[in-house]
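Supplementary Methods S3. Complex input for the adenosine-5'-diphosphate-bound model.
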Amino acid sequence: MSGEAPKPGHDAGAPPVVEFRGDVSKTFNAGTAKAYTAIHHLNFRIDDIPGRGEFIAIIGPSGCGKSTLLSLIAGFNTHIPATTGEVLVRGNPVTGPGRDRGMIFQRYSSFPHRTVLQNVTFGLEIHKRELGLNRSTMNDMAMEWIKKVGLDGHEQKYPSQLSGGMQQRVAIARTLILKPSIILMDEPFSALDEPTRIGMQRLTIDLWHDIHATCFIITHSISEAVYLGDRVWIFTKGPGTIAVEIKDLIPPSQGVDPLEIQERPEFKVALEAVAREFKKVTQ
Ligand code: ADP
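Predicted complex, serialized as structure tokens:
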């Protein structure tokens, strides 16, 4: 996938939003008896699609390095630098976390001692000087996002007073309020029951089209990958790498309900193709 030509509609002069080049790998505890290579031979570029963004869904066996890939993009100090190769965001090597990248985890990451409103303003408070924000503007912005994620009326509650799905809505609002151009989601809906999960998929598709970000989502669910993804990557067993990219078969899902799309023939074809490749890669 390295050296892929930018697609029509891309700004040909702009660097890719995310690029892994030079055979990116990550070996933990390198040089010791505990050395373990989590990922290797990763080369890809994700170009900006102005006014739209793109959704990359990643599936693969447990422990094959999917979270390691996201952590390298996020710039977590437990993971950077890569052992070999280069990880670039908009042409610059990743040297740490940044406001341009937001992460949403499976485990609810809200602060228990803060209300919903205070959780959603948290990121703004950290960056208030550079963003030129005062308390009242931050609260107004937070209320706007609280409404967008459907938590209107719950803003004074604490996370412990909310269901799992509602807590994940807080995490989404907290992340998206900073308008990151890259959103990294690590099995964000795995802990939720099926109806809640479908509601969250619906919300994710709606909000993503609102903020035009490039999103990476790790999921165990092939149907979630096909619904949310514009392309689906299937990872090999560890050390992980992208074994297959499926793109052309994936039907567009903007404005289509996750339950409704499951009935469409083109969705079923994509689902079967991804499942078949997944089986081949992971057997
Ligand atoms: P996945 O997300 O696909 O389940 P991970 O990226 O979390 O996989 O982990 C891949 C492998 O790397 C696992 O064997 C894990 O134990 C190991 N690993 C992840 N992070 C670290 C770390 N900070 N130190 C040592 N090993 C790690």
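The CA atoms of residues 108 and 167 lie 6 Å apart. The chain has nine helices and ten strands.
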